[in-house]
Design goal:
With 476 residues, this protein is an alpha+beta fold. The chain has two domains: 15-179, 3-Layer(aba) Sandwich (Creatine Amidinohydrolase, Chain A, domain 1); 182-338 and 382-475, Creatine Amidinohydrolase (Alpha-Beta Complex), CATH 3.90.230.10. The protein is built from 14 helices and 21 strands. The strands form seven sheets. The chain has a six-stranded mixed beta sheet, with helices on both faces. Bound molecules: calcium ion. Calcium ion (CA) binds next to loops.
Length: 476
C-alpha cells in the first residue's frame, strides 16, 4: 500500500482576507456587494449531488457550506464582511454533517459578523441604506435575484421617510472575475498540486491500458488516483477510443478499447476548488500506426507553437493563431487540405469576421439575417475547421473554463503574468468522401496547463509524456 501521497499546499492565513480587502476597496464606499453560496441540487428523489461551492463565493470566503450569503459593506464601522449562514444544530449535524455555525463563521472564516440565514431579509436592507450601487451577479438563481430586488424595492418605498435606496445594480463579475484572472503565487501552488495529481492519474491510465478493457476502466484508474489524494474530478472525465475520440465532449465512456485504435483522455482533478485540465491521446496497444503518428505529430507541433506564443505581451489569440497555422501546414503536407497556407488562413479569417458582424447585427436588430451557408461551403471545399473546430484554449482556475474576459473593447486581451490558460489543439477526422480512408475516425487532442510568467511561461503539466517516442517507451 502506498501512503497518501503528495503533501498538499496550504494558503497563507491572510490569502482570503487580502482578496476581500481588495474587493472592498475596488467597489468603493458607496457600494454593497452580495455573493450567495451554491445551492444543494437534487440528483433524484431525495438524494443530492455532491456539494460544490460556487466559485466566486469560495474565492472570497473559503466557506464550504450551502445556505450562506456573504455581504460586503465597505467602510461600515461595525464590520465590512458579514456572513449569513446556518446556525449550529446538533440534530441536523448528526444527520447531514458538521457545520461552522455563526461562531465558526467569525472565528474560523474571519467574518466581522455572522447572522442566521433566516434573518437575512430583516438585516440586508438596513445595510443597503444610503449606498448607491449594489454589486451583484444576476442570473445564476432567479429566486435569489428576486430576493435581492425586493430588498432594494422595499427601501425605495421608504424614500419619503428620508431613506436613500441604491439606484444602480452593477454586475459583480466586472471586478471579481478580473481579480480571479490574476492568480496569486499561492493559487499557482494549488494549481501545480492539482496538475501533479492529474499527471499521475493519466500515467496510471496509460500504464493500465490494453485492448479488451473498456473505456470506463481507464476512467476508473483516473478516479482512483484523484480520490487517493482526497481530490475530485474538476469535470466529467472524457475517455474516447477510436471514433469516440472525434466527439469533443464524449462522456459515455462505455466502449471496448480495440487494438489499433487511439484513445483520448481528457481529465483533471481539482484541489480545493482549483482545476487542472489535461488531455493526452495514445495508442491502445502502445504503438502508433503510421497515419496516427503523422496526424499526432501535427497536433504536437501545433501545441508547441501555441505554447511558445503563450507569453506576457502577446494577445489571447496569438497561441491559437500559431496552432492553426501549424495545423494547416501539416494538413497541406499530408494532402488532407489543398491550396496554399496564406489564402486558407485568410479565407477563414474573413469568414470569422463576417460571422461576428452578422451575429452582432442579429443581436442589435433582432431580425434574422442570412448567415453564411457553411453546408454549401463544405461541400465545395474542405476547410481546416472540419478537422479542427474549436479554439486552442481557455482560462483555468476555480472554474475549469475559468472567468475573465477574452476581449477588451472588442480587441483580444493581452496575456499577463499570473494568468493560467490551457493550450489544447486537436484534429478530429470524421469519414468524408474527399478524405483518404486511412485517416478516418482518428481523434487527437493534446492539452497542457500554462502559467504566464514574467519571462515566458511555466507548463504546469509538463512532466506528462507526449512525444511519440516517449509515449511508446512509457507504455511498453
Ligand atoms: Ca480539457
Amino acid at each position: 500500500m502506498n501512503a497518501p501521497i503528495i503533501k498538499p499546499p496550504q494558503f497563507p492565513s491572510n490569502e482570503f482576507s487580502n482578496r476581500r480587502d481588495q474587493l472592498l476597496q475596488m467597489i468603493g464606499a458607496d457600494s454593497i456587494a452580495i455573493v450567495p453560496s451554491a445551492l444543494l441540487k437534487i440528483r433524484n428523489r431525495d438524494a443530492e449531488f455532491p456539494f460544490r461551492q460556487e466559485s466566486d463565493f469560495l474565492y472570497l470566503t473559503n466557506f464550504n457550506e450551502p445556505d450562506a450569503v456573504a455581504v460586503f459593506v465597505p467602510e461600515r464601522e461595525e464590520g465590512e464582511y458579514i456572513l449569513f449562514c446556518r446556525e449550529k444544530n446538533e440534530k441536523t449535524e448528526r444527520w447531514t454533517g458538521r457545520m461552522a455555525g455563526l461562531e465558526g463563521a467569525v472565528e474560523t472564516y474571519g467574518a466581522d459578523d455572522a447572522f442566521p440565514i433566516e434573518d437575512i431579509d430583516d438585516i440586508v436592507p438596513g445595510l443597503m441604506e444610503n449606498r448607491t450601487a449594489v454589486h451583484y451577479s444576476m442570473g445564476a438563481d432567479p429566486v435569489f435575484d428576486q430576493q435581492v430586488m425586493s430588498w432594494v424595492s422595499g427601501l425605495r418605498t421608504k424614500i419619503r421617510s428620508g431613506v436613500r435606496a441604491p439606484h444602480e445594480f452593477v454586475s459583480l463579475d466586472l471586478i471579481l472575475h478580473d481579480m480571479r484572472l490574476y492568480k496569486s503565487p499561492s493559487e499557482h501552488n494549488f494549481m501545480r498540486h492539482a496538475a501533479k495529481v492529474s499527471i499521475d492519474a493519466h500515467q496510471r491510465a496509460m500504464q493500465r491500458c490494453q485492448d479488451g478493457l473498456y473505456e470506463y476502466q481507464l476512467e476508473a484508474e483516473i478516479t482512483h488516483e484523484f480520490r487517493s489524494n482526497g481530490m475530485d474530478a474538476a469535470y466529467t472525465s472524457i475517455v474516447g477510443s477510436g471514433e469516440n475520440g472525434c466527439i469533443l465532449h464524449y462522456i459515455e465512456n462505455n466502449a471496448p478499447l480495440r487494438d489499433g485504435d487511439l484513445v483520448l483522455i481528457d481529465a483533471g482533478s481539482e484541489y480545493q476548488g482549483y482545476a487542472s485540465d489535461i488531455t493526452r491521446t495514445f495508442p491502445v496497444n502502445g504503438k502508433f500506426s503510421e497515419p496516427q503518428r503523422q496526424l499526432y505529430q501535427i497536433v504536437l507541433d501545433a501545441q508547441a507553437a501555441g505554447i511558445e506564443q503563450a507569453k506576457a505581451g502577446n494577445t489571447w489569440n496569438q497561441p491559437h493563431e500559431a496552432a492553426v497555422k501549424a495545423i494547416v501546414t501539416g494538413l497541406l503536407e499530408l494532402g488532407l487540405l489543398s491550396g496554399d497556407l496564406e489564402s486558407i488562413l485568410e479565407k477563414e479569417k474573413k469568414k470569422e469576421v463576417e460571422q461576428a458582424k452578422q451575429a452582432k447585427e442579429k443581436l442589435s436588430h433582432r431580425h434574422q439575417t442570412p448567415l453564411i451557408n457553411e453546408e454549401n461551403d463544405i461541400d465545395k471545399e474542405l476547410s481546416y475547421k472540419q478537422f479542427y473546430m474549436h479554439k486552442t484554449g481557455h482560462w483555468l482556475g476555480l472554474d475549469v473554463h475559468d472567468v475573465g474576459d477574452y476581449k477588451i473593447d472588442d480587441e483580444w486581451r493581452l496575456l499577463e503574468p499570473g494568468m493560467v490558460m490551457t493550450v489544447e489543439p486537436g484534429l478530429y477526422i470524421s469519414p468524408h468522401k474527399d478524405v483518404d480512408k486511412k485517416w478516418w475516425n482518428i481523434g487527437i487532442r493534446i492539452e497542457d496547463d500554462v502559467l504566464i510568467t514574467q519571462n515566458g511561461n511555466e507548463v504546469l503539466t509538463q512532466e506528462l509524456v507526449k512525444e511519440v517516442d516517449d509515449i511508446e517507451r512509457f507504455m511498453q
